[in-house]
Amino acid sequence: MGVQPAVLNRSPGAVDARQAVTASSSGLALAALPLSLVGALSTSIGDDLGFGSAGTGAAIAVFFLASGLTAIPVGWITNRIGAPVAMRVGATLSGLALLSIGVAAGSLVHVALAMVVAGTAIGFVDTGASAWFAAAVPGHRRGMAFGIKESSVPAASLLAGLSLPLLASSFGWRSAFVVGAALVVIVWIIVPARPLVRERAAPVASSASPRAPLVLFTIGIALGTGAATAGATFLVPALEDRGWDASSAGLLLAAASIASIATRLAMGYTTDRLAGTMWTFTALAMAAGGVGAALLATAGPGALVGVGAFALLAFGWGWTGLAFHAVLTSTEAHPALGAGLVLAGLSLGGAGGPAAFGAISAAMSFSTAWAVGAVALALAAACTIASRRMVGRAA
Q1: Dihedral through CA 180, CA 183, CA 187, CA 193, nearest 10?
Q2: Would you place residue 202 in the very low, low, confident or very high pLDDT band (cuts 50, 70, 90)?
Q3: Which of 169, 284, 326, 393 is deepest in the core (most CB within 10 A)?
Protein backbone atom coordinates (compact mmCIF):
# COMPACT_ATOMS: atom_id res chain seq x y z
CA MET A 1 0.00 0.00 0.00
CA GLY A 2 2.70 2.48 -0.97
CA VAL A 3 0.46 5.52 -1.22
CA GLN A 4 1.22 9.10 -0.24
CA PRO A 5 -1.74 10.44 1.68
CA ALA A 6 -1.97 13.74 3.40
CA VAL A 7 -1.00 13.54 7.05
CA LEU A 8 -3.81 14.60 9.36
CA ASN A 9 -3.11 17.33 11.86
CA ARG A 10 -3.78 15.85 15.30
CA SER A 11 -3.25 19.02 17.28
CA PRO A 12 -5.62 19.36 20.25
CA GLY A 13 -8.86 21.05 19.30
CA ALA A 14 -8.34 20.72 15.53
CA VAL A 15 -11.42 18.55 15.36
CA ASP A 16 -13.90 17.49 18.00
CA ALA A 17 -13.92 13.85 19.07
CA ARG A 18 -17.54 13.92 20.20
CA GLN A 19 -18.64 15.35 16.88
CA ALA A 20 -16.66 12.65 15.09
CA VAL A 21 -18.39 9.87 17.03
CA THR A 22 -21.85 11.45 16.72
CA ALA A 23 -21.52 12.12 13.01
CA SER A 24 -20.05 8.70 12.27
CA SER A 25 -22.76 6.89 14.22
CA SER A 26 -25.60 8.81 12.61
CA GLY A 27 -24.03 8.44 9.18
CA LEU A 28 -23.58 4.69 9.56
CA ALA A 29 -27.13 4.24 10.86
CA LEU A 30 -28.41 6.04 7.76
CA ALA A 31 -26.14 3.99 5.49
CA ALA A 32 -27.43 0.74 7.00
CA LEU A 33 -31.08 1.84 6.82
CA PRO A 34 -31.76 0.68 3.21
CA LEU A 35 -30.64 -2.83 4.16
CA SER A 36 -32.69 -2.85 7.35
CA LEU A 37 -35.85 -1.47 5.72
CA VAL A 38 -35.72 -3.91 2.80
CA GLY A 39 -35.46 -6.75 5.31
CA ALA A 40 -38.10 -5.52 7.76
CA LEU A 41 -40.64 -4.56 5.07
CA SER A 42 -39.82 -7.44 2.71
CA THR A 43 -43.28 -8.99 2.86
CA SER A 44 -45.07 -5.77 1.90
CA ILE A 45 -42.49 -4.85 -0.73
CA GLY A 46 -42.55 -8.31 -2.26
CA ASP A 47 -46.35 -8.46 -2.36
CA ASP A 48 -46.49 -5.08 -4.07
CA LEU A 49 -43.64 -5.59 -6.55
CA GLY A 50 -44.14 -9.29 -7.24
CA PHE A 51 -41.25 -11.16 -5.66
CA GLY A 52 -40.79 -13.42 -2.65
CA SER A 53 -38.18 -14.21 -0.05
CA ALA A 54 -35.68 -15.37 -2.67
CA GLY A 55 -35.88 -11.95 -4.30
CA THR A 56 -35.37 -10.24 -0.95
CA GLY A 57 -32.33 -12.42 -0.30
CA ALA A 58 -30.92 -11.50 -3.70
CA ALA A 59 -31.37 -7.78 -3.04
CA ILE A 60 -29.61 -8.08 0.34
CA ALA A 61 -26.77 -10.08 -1.22
CA VAL A 62 -26.36 -7.38 -3.88
CA PHE A 63 -25.96 -4.78 -1.11
CA PHE A 64 -23.16 -6.72 0.56
CA LEU A 65 -21.45 -7.57 -2.72
CA ALA A 66 -21.47 -3.94 -3.82
CA SER A 67 -20.09 -2.88 -0.45
CA GLY A 68 -17.37 -5.52 -0.46
CA LEU A 69 -16.24 -4.94 -4.04
CA THR A 70 -16.13 -1.15 -3.75
CA ALA A 71 -14.79 -0.80 -0.19
CA ILE A 72 -11.08 -0.71 -1.03
CA PRO A 73 -11.40 1.66 -4.04
CA VAL A 74 -13.69 3.86 -1.95
CA GLY A 75 -11.00 3.90 0.73
CA TRP A 76 -8.55 5.32 -1.82
CA ILE A 77 -11.09 7.98 -2.80
CA THR A 78 -11.74 8.92 0.83
CA ASN A 79 -8.01 9.19 1.36
CA ARG A 80 -7.97 11.90 -1.33
CA ILE A 81 -11.15 13.85 -0.67
CA GLY A 82 -11.12 13.76 3.14
CA ALA A 83 -13.41 12.38 5.82
CA PRO A 84 -16.20 14.99 5.93
CA VAL A 85 -16.65 15.04 2.16
CA ALA A 86 -16.67 11.23 2.03
CA MET A 87 -19.29 11.00 4.77
CA ARG A 88 -21.52 13.55 3.07
CA VAL A 89 -21.17 11.64 -0.21
CA GLY A 90 -22.11 8.40 1.57
CA ALA A 91 -25.11 10.00 3.27
CA THR A 92 -26.30 11.48 -0.03
CA LEU A 93 -25.99 8.17 -1.87
CA SER A 94 -27.90 6.40 0.92
CA GLY A 95 -30.63 9.04 0.73
CA LEU A 96 -30.87 8.64 -3.04
CA ALA A 97 -31.16 4.87 -2.69
CA LEU A 98 -33.91 5.20 -0.10
CA LEU A 99 -35.77 7.80 -2.13
CA SER A 100 -35.46 5.76 -5.31
CA ILE A 101 -37.02 2.71 -3.67
CA GLY A 102 -39.70 4.71 -1.88
CA VAL A 103 -40.80 6.79 -4.87
CA ALA A 104 -40.02 4.89 -8.04
CA ALA A 105 -39.34 1.19 -7.39
CA GLY A 106 -41.51 -0.97 -9.59
CA SER A 107 -39.63 -4.26 -9.71
CA LEU A 108 -36.96 -6.35 -8.02
CA VAL A 109 -34.39 -5.09 -10.55
CA HIS A 110 -35.01 -1.50 -9.47
CA VAL A 111 -34.65 -2.42 -5.79
CA ALA A 112 -31.43 -4.32 -6.52
CA LEU A 113 -29.94 -1.37 -8.42
CA ALA A 114 -30.77 0.92 -5.50
CA MET A 115 -29.07 -1.55 -3.17
CA VAL A 116 -25.91 -1.33 -5.28
CA VAL A 117 -25.89 2.42 -4.62
CA ALA A 118 -26.61 1.84 -0.92
CA GLY A 119 -23.82 -0.74 -0.63
CA THR A 120 -21.34 1.70 -2.17
CA ALA A 121 -22.56 4.46 0.16
CA ILE A 122 -21.75 2.58 3.34
CA GLY A 123 -18.14 2.36 2.19
CA PHE A 124 -17.82 6.15 2.05
CA VAL A 125 -19.29 6.47 5.55
CA ASP A 126 -17.15 3.75 7.13
CA THR A 127 -13.86 4.82 5.56
CA GLY A 128 -14.63 8.46 6.29
CA ALA A 129 -15.38 7.62 9.92
CA SER A 130 -12.06 5.81 10.35
CA ALA A 131 -10.14 8.69 8.80
CA TRP A 132 -11.95 11.12 11.08
CA PHE A 133 -11.30 8.99 14.15
CA ALA A 134 -7.60 8.95 13.30
CA ALA A 135 -7.61 12.76 13.32
CA ALA A 136 -10.00 13.50 16.16
CA VAL A 137 -10.16 10.65 18.65
CA PRO A 138 -7.22 10.03 21.01
CA GLY A 139 -5.79 6.53 20.84
CA HIS A 140 -6.92 5.65 24.36
CA ARG A 141 -10.55 6.37 23.45
CA ARG A 142 -10.83 4.77 20.03
CA GLY A 143 -12.05 1.40 21.27
CA MET A 144 -15.15 2.93 22.80
CA ALA A 145 -15.58 5.26 19.80
CA PHE A 146 -15.59 2.35 17.36
CA GLY A 147 -17.90 0.40 19.67
CA ILE A 148 -20.43 3.23 19.63
CA LYS A 149 -20.14 3.60 15.85
CA GLU A 150 -20.66 -0.10 15.20
CA SER A 151 -23.64 -0.19 17.56
CA SER A 152 -25.43 2.13 15.14
CA VAL A 153 -25.91 -0.81 12.73
CA PRO A 154 -28.31 -2.57 15.13
CA ALA A 155 -29.84 0.87 15.71
CA ALA A 156 -30.78 0.92 12.03
CA SER A 157 -32.60 -2.38 12.56
CA LEU A 158 -34.43 -0.80 15.47
CA LEU A 159 -35.53 2.12 13.28
CA ALA A 160 -36.68 -0.31 10.62
CA GLY A 161 -38.69 -2.23 13.19
CA LEU A 162 -40.34 0.95 14.46
CA SER A 163 -41.25 1.94 10.91
CA LEU A 164 -43.74 -0.93 10.74
CA PRO A 165 -46.22 0.33 13.36
CA LEU A 166 -45.45 4.04 12.96
CA LEU A 167 -45.41 4.42 9.17
CA ALA A 168 -45.87 1.34 7.02
CA SER A 169 -49.08 0.12 8.65
CA SER A 170 -50.81 3.50 8.13
CA PHE A 171 -49.16 5.07 5.08
CA GLY A 172 -47.67 2.11 3.21
CA TRP A 173 -44.15 0.73 3.02
CA ARG A 174 -42.93 3.45 0.64
CA SER A 175 -43.43 6.11 3.32
CA ALA A 176 -40.74 4.53 5.50
CA PHE A 177 -38.16 4.88 2.72
CA VAL A 178 -39.13 8.49 1.99
CA VAL A 179 -38.89 9.46 5.67
CA GLY A 180 -35.57 7.63 5.90
CA ALA A 181 -34.23 9.61 2.95
CA ALA A 182 -35.07 12.84 4.77
CA LEU A 183 -32.59 11.88 7.51
CA VAL A 184 -29.80 12.87 5.11
CA VAL A 185 -30.37 16.46 6.22
CA ILE A 186 -29.48 15.56 9.81
CA VAL A 187 -26.21 13.93 8.78
CA TRP A 188 -25.28 16.94 6.62
CA ILE A 189 -25.89 19.23 9.59
CA ILE A 190 -23.73 17.14 11.92
CA VAL A 191 -20.86 16.59 9.48
CA PRO A 192 -18.80 19.79 9.04
CA ALA A 193 -18.74 21.45 5.64
CA ARG A 194 -15.06 22.32 5.93
CA PRO A 195 -12.39 19.65 5.52
CA LEU A 196 -10.35 18.49 8.48
CA VAL A 197 -7.17 20.47 9.01
CA ARG A 198 -4.29 18.88 7.10
CA GLU A 199 -0.59 19.39 6.90
CA ARG A 200 1.39 19.02 3.70
CA ALA A 201 1.45 15.59 2.08
CA ALA A 202 4.23 13.32 3.27
CA PRO A 203 5.44 10.01 1.85
CA VAL A 204 4.60 6.89 3.78
CA ALA A 205 6.81 3.86 3.45
CA SER A 206 5.06 0.68 2.40
CA SER A 207 6.35 -1.03 5.52
CA ALA A 208 4.15 1.26 7.61
CA SER A 209 1.17 -0.85 6.65
CA PRO A 210 2.34 -4.42 5.90
CA ARG A 211 0.11 -5.89 3.23
CA ALA A 212 0.16 -9.62 4.02
CA PRO A 213 -1.14 -9.50 7.63
CA LEU A 214 -3.91 -7.09 6.71
CA VAL A 215 -5.04 -9.30 3.84
CA LEU A 216 -4.98 -12.31 6.16
CA PHE A 217 -6.99 -10.37 8.74
CA THR A 218 -9.50 -9.42 6.04
CA ILE A 219 -9.96 -13.13 5.27
CA GLY A 220 -10.51 -13.80 8.97
CA ILE A 221 -13.05 -10.98 9.16
CA ALA A 222 -14.93 -12.45 6.18
CA LEU A 223 -15.03 -15.90 7.80
CA GLY A 224 -16.18 -14.54 11.15
CA THR A 225 -18.76 -12.21 9.63
CA GLY A 226 -20.15 -14.94 7.43
CA ALA A 227 -20.78 -17.22 10.40
CA ALA A 228 -22.20 -14.46 12.62
CA THR A 229 -24.46 -13.01 9.93
CA ALA A 230 -25.77 -16.47 9.11
CA GLY A 231 -26.43 -17.00 12.80
CA ALA A 232 -28.50 -13.84 13.07
CA THR A 233 -30.34 -14.66 9.84
CA PHE A 234 -31.18 -18.30 10.54
CA LEU A 235 -31.41 -18.49 14.33
CA VAL A 236 -35.21 -18.28 14.42
CA PRO A 237 -35.92 -20.91 11.71
CA ALA A 238 -33.22 -23.16 13.18
CA LEU A 239 -34.84 -22.98 16.62
CA GLU A 240 -38.28 -23.57 15.11
CA ASP A 241 -36.83 -26.66 13.46
CA ARG A 242 -35.99 -27.88 16.96
CA GLY A 243 -39.52 -27.32 18.19
CA TRP A 244 -39.35 -23.78 19.56
CA ASP A 245 -42.33 -21.55 18.93
CA ALA A 246 -41.72 -18.45 16.81
CA SER A 247 -42.34 -15.97 19.63
CA SER A 248 -39.79 -17.56 21.96
CA ALA A 249 -37.22 -17.81 19.19
CA GLY A 250 -37.79 -14.17 18.25
CA LEU A 251 -37.38 -13.04 21.85
CA LEU A 252 -34.11 -14.95 22.12
CA LEU A 253 -32.87 -13.31 18.92
CA ALA A 254 -33.81 -9.86 20.23
CA ALA A 255 -32.12 -10.45 23.59
CA ALA A 256 -28.96 -11.80 21.95
CA SER A 257 -28.86 -8.83 19.58
CA ILE A 258 -29.04 -6.41 22.50
CA ALA A 259 -26.23 -8.40 24.11
CA SER A 260 -24.21 -7.86 20.93
CA ILE A 261 -24.54 -4.09 21.31
CA ALA A 262 -23.50 -4.31 24.96
CA THR A 263 -20.50 -6.46 24.03
CA ARG A 264 -19.29 -3.97 21.42
CA LEU A 265 -19.39 -1.17 23.96
CA ALA A 266 -17.85 -3.23 26.78
CA MET A 267 -14.96 -4.54 24.71
CA GLY A 268 -14.29 -1.09 23.32
CA TYR A 269 -14.19 0.33 26.85
CA THR A 270 -11.89 -2.47 28.02
CA THR A 271 -9.38 -2.23 25.18
CA ASP A 272 -9.10 1.51 25.75
CA ARG A 273 -7.79 0.72 29.23
CA LEU A 274 -5.62 -2.20 28.17
CA ALA A 275 -3.63 -0.70 25.31
CA GLY A 276 -2.77 -2.95 22.39
CA THR A 277 -5.26 -5.68 23.28
CA MET A 278 -7.77 -5.10 20.46
CA TRP A 279 -6.27 -7.92 18.36
CA THR A 280 -6.39 -10.34 21.29
CA PHE A 281 -9.95 -9.44 22.25
CA THR A 282 -11.06 -9.76 18.60
CA ALA A 283 -9.64 -13.28 18.43
CA LEU A 284 -11.14 -14.24 21.81
CA ALA A 285 -14.57 -12.94 20.78
CA MET A 286 -14.42 -14.90 17.52
CA ALA A 287 -13.42 -18.04 19.41
CA ALA A 288 -16.23 -17.56 21.95
CA GLY A 289 -18.67 -17.16 19.06
CA GLY A 290 -17.35 -20.42 17.64
CA VAL A 291 -18.11 -22.14 20.94
CA GLY A 292 -21.63 -20.76 20.73
CA ALA A 293 -22.08 -22.14 17.21
CA ALA A 294 -20.74 -25.51 18.39
CA LEU A 295 -23.31 -25.55 21.19
CA LEU A 296 -26.08 -24.85 18.70
CA ALA A 297 -24.79 -27.74 16.60
CA THR A 298 -24.64 -30.28 19.41
CA ALA A 299 -26.86 -29.22 22.34
CA GLY A 300 -30.29 -30.67 22.97
CA PRO A 301 -33.48 -28.64 23.37
CA GLY A 302 -32.51 -27.29 26.81
CA ALA A 303 -30.88 -24.13 28.09
CA LEU A 304 -27.56 -24.74 26.33
CA VAL A 305 -29.20 -23.69 23.07
CA GLY A 306 -29.89 -20.28 24.59
CA VAL A 307 -26.31 -20.08 25.87
CA GLY A 308 -25.05 -20.93 22.40
CA ALA A 309 -27.21 -18.27 20.77
CA PHE A 310 -26.00 -15.61 23.21
CA ALA A 311 -22.36 -16.58 22.74
CA LEU A 312 -22.66 -16.60 18.96
CA LEU A 313 -24.34 -13.21 18.61
CA ALA A 314 -22.94 -11.38 21.64
CA PHE A 315 -19.30 -12.40 21.05
CA GLY A 316 -19.19 -13.86 17.55
CA TRP A 317 -20.76 -10.64 16.19
CA GLY A 318 -19.54 -8.21 18.85
CA TRP A 319 -15.97 -7.68 17.63
CA THR A 320 -16.48 -5.46 14.55
CA GLY A 321 -15.52 -2.22 16.31
CA LEU A 322 -12.32 -3.85 17.56
CA ALA A 323 -11.47 -4.93 14.02
CA PHE A 324 -11.62 -1.34 12.78
CA HIS A 325 -9.57 -0.22 15.79
CA ALA A 326 -6.92 -2.92 15.24
CA VAL A 327 -6.45 -2.09 11.58
CA LEU A 328 -6.31 1.63 12.32
CA THR A 329 -3.27 1.04 14.53
CA SER A 330 -1.50 -0.59 11.58
CA THR A 331 -2.60 1.91 8.91
CA GLU A 332 -2.35 5.08 10.95
CA ALA A 333 -1.08 7.18 8.05
CA HIS A 334 -3.93 6.23 5.71
CA PRO A 335 -6.81 4.96 7.87
CA ALA A 336 -9.43 5.11 5.13
CA LEU A 337 -7.61 2.38 3.21
CA GLY A 338 -7.43 0.18 6.29
CA ALA A 339 -11.13 0.70 6.93
CA GLY A 340 -11.78 -0.31 3.33
CA LEU A 341 -10.08 -3.66 3.98
CA VAL A 342 -12.18 -4.27 7.09
CA LEU A 343 -15.39 -3.31 5.31
CA ALA A 344 -14.50 -5.58 2.38
CA GLY A 345 -14.19 -8.52 4.77
CA LEU A 346 -17.40 -7.63 6.60
CA SER A 347 -19.38 -7.20 3.40
CA LEU A 348 -18.14 -10.26 1.52
CA GLY A 349 -18.71 -12.38 4.61
CA GLY A 350 -22.17 -10.88 4.98
CA ALA A 351 -22.95 -11.81 1.39
CA GLY A 352 -21.52 -15.32 1.39
CA GLY A 353 -22.18 -16.56 4.92
CA PRO A 354 -25.98 -16.70 4.89
CA ALA A 355 -25.98 -18.17 1.38
CA ALA A 356 -23.60 -20.95 2.40
CA PHE A 357 -25.46 -21.61 5.67
CA GLY A 358 -28.79 -21.81 3.84
CA ALA A 359 -27.40 -24.22 1.25
CA ILE A 360 -25.80 -26.49 3.87
CA SER A 361 -28.88 -26.54 6.10
CA ALA A 362 -31.11 -27.35 3.12
CA ALA A 363 -28.84 -30.12 1.80
CA MET A 364 -27.93 -31.63 5.19
CA SER A 365 -29.20 -30.11 8.45
CA PHE A 366 -29.09 -27.05 10.65
CA SER A 367 -26.73 -28.88 13.00
CA THR A 368 -24.23 -29.39 10.18
CA ALA A 369 -24.51 -25.74 9.20
CA TRP A 370 -23.86 -24.63 12.80
CA ALA A 371 -20.82 -26.91 12.92
CA VAL A 372 -19.43 -25.33 9.76
CA GLY A 373 -20.05 -21.91 11.32
CA ALA A 374 -18.09 -22.96 14.40
CA VAL A 375 -15.15 -23.99 12.23
CA ALA A 376 -15.32 -20.69 10.31
CA LEU A 377 -15.16 -18.67 13.55
CA ALA A 378 -12.26 -20.78 14.82
CA LEU A 379 -10.38 -20.14 11.58
CA ALA A 380 -11.23 -16.44 11.87
CA ALA A 381 -9.67 -16.36 15.35
CA ALA A 382 -6.57 -18.15 14.04
CA CYS A 383 -6.22 -15.65 11.16
CA THR A 384 -6.48 -12.78 13.64
CA ILE A 385 -3.78 -14.19 15.91
CA ALA A 386 -1.49 -14.88 12.96
CA SER A 387 -2.08 -11.36 11.60
CA ARG A 388 -1.19 -9.83 14.95
CA ARG A 389 2.08 -11.74 15.09
CA MET A 390 2.96 -10.74 11.54
CA VAL A 391 2.25 -7.08 12.32
CA GLY A 392 4.44 -7.32 15.44
CA ARG A 393 7.33 -8.81 13.48
CA ALA A 394 7.02 -6.14 10.77
CA ALA A 395 7.02 -3.38 13.39
Answers
A1: 120
A2: very low
A3: 326
